Amino acid sequence: MKFGIVFFPTVGPADKPAPEYFDEALRLVDLAEELGYDHVKMVEHYFFPYGGYSPDPTTFLAAAAGRTKRIRLGTSATIPAFQHPVKLAGKLAMLDNISGGRLDAAFGRAFLPDEFKAFGIPMDESKDRFVEGTEAIKRLWSEENVVFEGRFHQFGPVTLLPRPVQQPHPPVFVTTARSAESCAEAGRNGHHLQTVPNVMSTEELQSRLAVYRAEWAASGREPGTERIHFSYPCVVAHDGDAARAKGRLDDDRNTAAIAAAVASWETTRSEAYPGYERLVAATKQSHFDSKMEQKKLLIGAPDQVRAQLEQIADWFGDDISVSLSVHSGHLSFKDAETTMRLMAEDVIPKLKGGRV
């Protein structure tokens, strides 16, 4: 098991000014580098406190690259539907160069109706735009004189500069939340996988991972070379009750943020997102205690979190990477720092196969 940190801000100006949030986040990047964590990632979202402080993860990761020498830098994920592939491929290739070849490029479809509306993109096109955009970016990274004739973008011949440091291109991850077919396609296409266990049952996630791993192997790739990243909210303190109180506060605020962001699903329907209208009701039924029971949050004293991770490894395998969401913005910088130090010093070293 490898461990890193992921930034998913769920605050707005009324909670914490953006310069303060970014200053704290970059100081935590420094700490992650010092403590030997494997990766740092940031999401892409717009407008709402739910991720709205991170409209361009490449900007944040470029700042992180300038402060670090070793840690991997991941988008978690960037959205091809909202940018021209030549532009996005160029930005990510530039980041790969600035960081000396440390980019992990994750792509996602997005799922918030208000974001699609703002960009003037029909939601029903999201999957086709995702597939086309990802294909175009990979070709721009790995080929010269690219001529591309897609449904949404036509260009060429184009030779992208700068060329990525990592050849034939940086590792490509696909972010998926619910779709079994998306997991299967990721395996067939040789894409690595990242997901959030919070959005499905343990059994559903086990089934999706089995499909993904089977398709990876069936495509002729060596089993075990696939990379799987899970994201978990994480609060660790010396006192388990104190950690649980802080974790409950953070989870309540995060749930309120996502409830506001998904509210438009109450009046939105899309064939590309079957069942997503149920997100509104799901946020109202989201409860901290049930998430803790289902091991969907990593919260407690070091020995408690270690037990949670051992159960997760039993369920999903000890070859996964865990991205710790340590700083949504509602708890203090000190709380996040304590979590990261306790994980690196008291939790991970005592796990079988665990390493930062």
UniProtKB/TrEMBL annotation:
InterPro entries: Bact_Lucif_Oxidored (IPR050766), Luciferase-like_dom (IPR011251), Luciferase-like_sf (IPR036661). The keyword Acetylation does not apply. Keywords: Oxidoreductase. Its EC number is 1.-.-.-. Pfam families: Bac_luciferase (PF00296). The keyword Oxidoreductase applies. It comes from Streptomyces cavernicola. It comes from the Bacteria. The lineage of its organism: Bacteria, Bacillati, Actinomycetota, Actinomycetes, Kitasatosporales. Residues 1-317 form the Luciferase-like domain. GO terms for molecular function: oxidoreductase activity. This is LLM class flavin-dependent oxidoreductase.
